[in-house]
Amino acid sequence: MGAGVATRSHFLALYLLVGVLLLGICAGGYARRRNASRYEAEPELWTRLSLDQALLRWHSVVGLLVVAHTDPYGRLQRSICLALHVVLQLLVAAVLPLLGTGSTGSATTSEAVLSGLLSAVVTFVLSLLVAEPFIRRGAMSRNPLARKLAVSFGLGAIVLVLAVLSALAVIAQRTRLIALHYRTVLVSFSAAQVLSLFVIEPLMAAFAFVVLGKTHQATRIKATAVGVTDNAISGAEGRSSGSEVQSLS
Predict the structure, then answer these.
(1) Distance between CA 80 and CA 136 in Å, rounded?
(2) Which residues in 167-199 are b (16+ Cβ under 10 Å) and which e?
(3) What is the pTM assigned to this prediction?
(4) pLDDT, tens only, 141-163
(5) Predicted local distance difference test score (pLDDT) of residue 155
(6) Which of 86, 87, 77, 82 is nearest to 160 (CA)?
(7) Neighbours of 89 (CB within 10 A)
(8) How far is CA 57 from the centre of its chain?
(9) What's the CA gap between 101 and 213, in Å, rounded?
(10) Is the dihedral of CA 65, 121, 2, 186 positive or negative?
(11) How large is the C-alpha radius of gyration of the chain?
């Protein structure tokens, strides 16, 4: 049974990862054109990156150290995304065995590691679909309220995931409805963390750079440029009005 569970976890992770890659390839042409038009329309808001720079700046941990102070997706937003990814990965590692797709309590270390591979891929897909794009888009917004809402959403999601984890632990300890095998969860979670940091994140960053054309990083939000433009227009209008008053007088 353990070998069957491990094999199923292995292939489910492979299918999910291949599915994400195929979806990205299908959307690659549109994404490249869209990204190129954004960079060309507002070149003052973007900085061209090389592949090695993209791998570093888009990494969840290394990006915290090398992020530029002008990047609107700064350390606060990156820290929230990293914390949410970690607690979400722990939740997935705990829930998958309960669904019959992860390793059981009698699982060997190798089976738990394969379950960790599935946990890493599932967490990546969830983060890609729900968490990180919303927080990143909020950070890039020129609306201060949207930026605050994105941060609040990330913090609220972290609290919610921690609450679900606490509830699972309490139910496992006080009832027989579920059984959490902490050693298996810990091994699966650790394997998922290693795979995410050293395999999945660099692979997805390179994929986004090469296939999706994400070759630039924002250096400031559009509100900065708009604010400067508005101030310049207001100043020009003020000077024009002053000249008219002087000429009339």
Answers:
(1) 11
(2) ebeeebeeeeeeebbeebbebbbebbbebbeee
(3) 0.79
(4) 889 999 999 999 999 999 999 99
(5) 95
(6) 87
(7) 25
(8) 13
(9) 35
(10) positive
(11) 23
